Write a sequence for this structure.
């Protein structure tokens, strides 16, 4: 029996019209095809401006594709129900700063239709998982950056998602914060969750990812298991593969 | 749709939304939409309650109302009519400021602070976000108005010994309905104008213009040449006549309540206009890219 992909992107094309007169249309993503299967941790890599965030924005329904389609659990991402079983962590912490961690989790739990009892149980366990139990009744504006990032992870987990979409989850965190986020991703992987995440930390990607996709100028340049890519490009690390694929010449 | 997909959607409802599982698909979707709208509205109310400027305006209005109501100007008992008029004018201005400034910043601030991203990444439609914002602002304004009018009723009763509950209820509900139209108009404006400040100004000018000139536009049109006459007439029929909801005189002059059928018709008129503005806002927001 073939396994159905949890996340599927078919010939995705995203174009932005330039606001300046005489400027050409900008192609953010060109003909992207990608599949992520249940239980995988997939690393979505690429330099700044490669189209990673745009692709994620399409998956989350923020931006409509110019052409092509994207599916989550076989449902077109244009349908809000496609987002019922996903958790999303944005790159920066974007939460209502006047709410406490507990209040924000109750708000999102209500949106997912969780009953009060289930929500309370889940909030307790998630706040323990992200180590924010002690600060649950404090407004988010009083949190440090690392704590805010962990609120982000907590809200992404509130619906016990099967697929997590994480946009540079360790960006701007100190080494301890990064390690904690990595630990949580590892724990989710062990629980059989599918994780789709973008990152610039190639060492971290190498540690936690089953497969990676490398995007350059809106196109998928390479895709596969880390070990296979390293072998086929005759490199010793993922970083070298990344630089080779993107034709980056190191200064002599 | 593949078998996998159909099963997944059924599983969504079993696992995530067990509430209302006895309901049909449409009823379930409707119940989930109402829950989302009420949750988003709840955040608006919490935000308002935790803002200092709201309290300052609220407490100031309440204090001025109490002070004006308790002072016996010029030792003249009949002056109570003028005091009431001033108190009501103050309530009108204050509630208008609260509703417009609150509604104007909702969606632009969500975009600016990027809190819209984690919200839209949930199974929430953009229409639900618009309706949730409207609901939160309208409910908060309604609660504020209720407190103001109860204050006014008690103060009025202490001055002239009357308890005009019927007219006060009508004035309160009509005022609230009018603010519903204003809030819906402001939410639509917040999707058209980039900055909340320009939306605030334009909405204030439009609302005050309608309140002061709305009822005279047809008479103005008669004095104009074509095609201006048709244009002003069209404007007269298109704009929401907010001045119809200004029934302060009922309370100032201690007149009786207006016929309840007319009151109902006025509420229906407000619902239609608020609905049209919200429909426009939903359509605009649906087309917008958020990135």
């Amino acid at each position: 029996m073939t396994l159905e992909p949890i996340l599927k992107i078919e010939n995705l094309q995203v174009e932005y019209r330039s606001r300046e007169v005489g400027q050409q249309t900008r192609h953010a993503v060109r003909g992207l095809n990608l599949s992520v299967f249940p239980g995988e941790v997939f690393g979505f890599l690429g330099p700044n401006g490669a189209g990673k965030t745009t692709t994620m924005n399409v998956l989350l329904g923020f931006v409509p594709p110019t052409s092509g389609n994207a599916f989550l659990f076989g449902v077109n991402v244009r349908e809000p129900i496609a987002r019922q079983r996903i958790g999303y962590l944005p790159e920066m912490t974007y939460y209502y700063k006047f709410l406490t961690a507990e209040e924000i989790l109750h708000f999102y739990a209500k949106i997912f239709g969780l009953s009060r009892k289930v929500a309370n149980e889940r909030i307790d366990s998630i706040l323990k998982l992200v180590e924010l139990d002690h600060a649950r009744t404090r407004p988010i504006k009083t949190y440090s950056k690392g704590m805010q990032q962990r609120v982000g992870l907590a809200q992404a987990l509130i619906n016990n998602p099967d697929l997590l979409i994480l946009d540079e989850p360790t960006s701007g965190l100190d080494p301890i914060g990064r390690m904690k986020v990595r630990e949580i991703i590892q724990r989710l992987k062990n629980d059989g969750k599918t994780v789709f995440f973008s990152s610039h930390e190639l060492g971290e990607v190498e540690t936690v990812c089953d497969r990676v996709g490398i995007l350059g100028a809106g196109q998928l340049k390479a895709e596969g298991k880390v070990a296979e890519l390293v072998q086929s490009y005759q490199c010793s690390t993922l970083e070298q593969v990344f630089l080779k694929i993107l034709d980056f010449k190191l200064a002599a | 749709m593949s078998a996998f997909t159909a099963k997944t959607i059924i599983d969504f409802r079993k696992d995530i939304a067990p509430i209302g599982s006895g309901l049909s698909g449409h009823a379930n979707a409707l119940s989930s939409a109402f829950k989302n709208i009420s949750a988003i509205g709840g955040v608006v109310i919490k935000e308002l309650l935790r803002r200092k400027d709201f309290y300052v305006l609220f407490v100031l209005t309440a204090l001025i109302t109490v002070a004006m109501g308790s002072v016996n100007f010029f030792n003249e008992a009949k002056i109570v009519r003028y005091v009431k008029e001033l108190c009501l004018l103050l309530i009108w201005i204050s509630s208008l400021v609260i509703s417009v400034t609150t509604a104007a910043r909702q969606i632009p601030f969500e975009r600016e602070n990027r809190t819209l991203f984690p919200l839209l990444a949930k199974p929430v439609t953009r229409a639900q976000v618009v309706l949730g914002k409207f609901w939160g602002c309208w409910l908060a304004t309604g609660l504020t108005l209720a407190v103001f009018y109860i204050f006014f009723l008690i103060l009025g009763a202490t001055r002239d010994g009357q308890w005009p509950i019927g007219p006060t209820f009508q004035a309160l509900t009509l005022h609230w309905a009018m603010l519903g139209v204003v809030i819906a108009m402001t939410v639509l404006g917040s999707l058209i104008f980039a900055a909340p400040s320009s939306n605030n100004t334009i909405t204030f000018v439009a609302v005050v213009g309608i309140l002061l000139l709305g009822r005279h536009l047809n008479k103005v049109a008669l004095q104009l040449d074509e095609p201006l006459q048709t244009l002003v007439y069209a404007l007269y029929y298109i704009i929401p006549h907010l001045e119809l909801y200004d029934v302060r005189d009922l309370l100032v002059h201690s007149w009786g309540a207006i016929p309840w059928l007319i009151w109902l018709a006025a509420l229906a008129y407000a619902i239609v206009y608020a609905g049209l503005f919200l429909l426009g806002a939903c359509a605009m927001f649906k087309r917008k890219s958020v990135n």
Notes: The first strand of chain A starts at residue 7 and ends at 16. The mean pLDDT of chain A is 86. Strands of chain A lie at 7-16, 26-36, 41-45, 67-72, 75-76, 86-89, 163-167, 194-198, 211-216, 219-225. The interface with chain B takes residues 4, 53-54, 57, 60-64, 73-75, 80-81, 83-86, 88, 90, 92, 94-99, 103, 107-108, 110-115, 152, 155-156, 159-160, 165 of chain A (CB under 8 Å).
